[in-house]
């Protein structure tokens, strides 16, 4: 018997047929499916389409229409925008093509969203990527970013768009208020989403398009983490992650955009915190990579981003 929920899932994928197939197999084990599932595929080969096709009939028997589209523009934000244009449900579910769902994940997300009409979106708990208590140096740095000491930074956005995942503790309620949502596995009310949902500057590989979207939604709606809706994120490598310099530059550019345009933080102190945060990230990279080529590529990317930002500032005068 069909048991689909009035939800449309939109998934962006690219050249990862194996993880995609495992994700769809995990979805098939859910006791309820979304009524619509749109896969927007930027792959160079047909294997991802074939992987999706293997599930279409089984999903249809349970009331879920699975459709595949070739991406017009490659990039998570652009692909999700493309998928959103064709769905008709009142709730939209974004999830990555490399996640595994715990039992009842989707039903718990849906129940959480319906628990409060003021909620614009709810995220699942990523069991292998949740918030952990920071060490002494990190606590000091986070306090500088936030401008004050907080008992916990879980689910918060502080300083120059520094965002923290939610915390997984048994003494917390099932639905916990947060300041941002990731798109690894998140359910939004469609009426809460802007149009377009993902801004065009988050093209190709984008670092913080999910943060940007949730901050826009959060201006008018509440956001929360549904702690008992759980997933495992089996994060995969990809071509968009291989160019360390380009990724490092994009991280800086996207963070600056969110800091100044969405959070309205443009003061001297805000730029000082941005400099401190990016310097800290480079220092961590230097230690982890032992000063090897990846560190120098990351440094090259930050320098290129800084030149672009300075150039843009001069042109704006």
- What radius of gyration results from the CA coordinates? 20 Å
| Low-confidence blocks of residues | none
The count of domains is 2
Strand content: 15-25%
Task: Quote the average pLDDT.
Answer: 94
CATH topology of the largest domain: Spore Coat Polysaccharide Biosynthesis Protein SpsA, Chain A
CATH class of the largest domain: Alpha Beta
Query: Mind describing the biggest β-sheet?
Result: 9 strands, mixed
What is the chain-wise order of helices and strands? EHEHEHEEHEHEEEEHEHHHH
Helix content class: 40-55%
CATH architecture of the largest domain: Alpha-Beta Complex
SSE-based structural type: alpha/beta
Your description of this structure?
With 317 residues, this protein is α/β, with parallel strands linked by helices. It folds into 2 domains: 5-130 and 165-233, Spore Coat Polysaccharide Biosynthesis Protein SpsA, Chain A; 239-315. It is 42% helix and 20% strand. It has helices at residues 17-28, 47-61, 76-84, 105-114, 136-146, 209-218, 239-242, 244-262, 268-288, 293-315, and strands spanning 5-13, 34-41, 65-70, 91-95, 99-101, 119-126, 157-158, 162-163, 175-177, 185-189, 222-233. α2 (47-61) links the parallel β2 and β3 (65-70). The protein starts with a strand and ends with a helix.
Structure at a glance:
With 317 residues, this protein is an alpha/beta fold. 42% of the residues lie in helices and 20% in strands.
Topology summary:
Layout: E1 5-13, H1 17-28, E2 34-41, H2 47-61, E3 65-70, H3 76-84, E4 91-95, E5 99-101, H4 105-114, E6 119-126, H5 136-146, E7 157-158, E8 162-163, E9 175-177, E10 185-189, H6 209-218, E11 222-233, H7 239-242, H8 244-262, H9 268-288, H10 293-315
Parallel strand pairs: 1-2, 1-4, 2-3, 6-11
Antiparallel strand pairs: 4-10, 5-11, 6-10, 7-8, 9-11
């Amino acid at each position: 018997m069909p048991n689909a929920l009035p939800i449309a899932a939109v998934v962006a994928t690219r050249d990862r047929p194996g993880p995609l197939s495992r994700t769809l197999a995990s979805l098939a084990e859910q006791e309820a499916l979304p009524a619509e599932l749109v896969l927007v595929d930027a792959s160079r080969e047909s294997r991802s389409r074939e992987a999706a096709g293997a599930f279409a009939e089984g999903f249809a028997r349970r009331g879920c229409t699975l459709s595949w589209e070739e991406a017009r523009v490659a990039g998570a934000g652009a692909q999700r925008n493309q998928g959103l244009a064709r769905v008709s449900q009142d709730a939209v579910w974004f999830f990555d093509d490399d996640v595994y769902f715990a039992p009842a994940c989707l039903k718990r997300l849906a129940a959480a969203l319906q628990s409060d009409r003021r909620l614009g979106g709810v995220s699942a708990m990523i069991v292998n990527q949740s918030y952990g208590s920071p060490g002494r140096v990190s606590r000091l740095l986070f306090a500088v970013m936030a401008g004050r000491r907080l008992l916990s930074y879980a689910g918060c956005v502080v300083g120059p768009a520094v965002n923290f995942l939610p915390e997984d503790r048994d003494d917390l309620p099932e639905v916990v208020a947060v300041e941002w949502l990731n798109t690894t596995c998140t359910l939004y009310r469609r009426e809460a989403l802007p149009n377009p949902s993902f801004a065009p500057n988050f093209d190709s590989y984008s670092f913080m398009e999910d943060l940007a979207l949730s901050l826009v939604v959060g201006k008018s709606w509440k956001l929360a983490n549904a702690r008992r809706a759980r997933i495992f994120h089996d994060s995969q490598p990809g071509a968009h992650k291989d160019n360390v310099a380009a990724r490092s530059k994009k991280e800086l550019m996207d963070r600056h955009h969110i800091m100044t345009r969405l959070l309205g933080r443009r003061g001297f102190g805000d730029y000082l915190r941005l400099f401190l945060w990016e310097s800290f990230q480079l220092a961590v990279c230097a230690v982890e990579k032992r000063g090897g080529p990846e560190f120098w590529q990351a440094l090259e990317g930050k320098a290129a981003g800084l030149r672009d930002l300075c150039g843009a500032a001069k042109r704006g005068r």
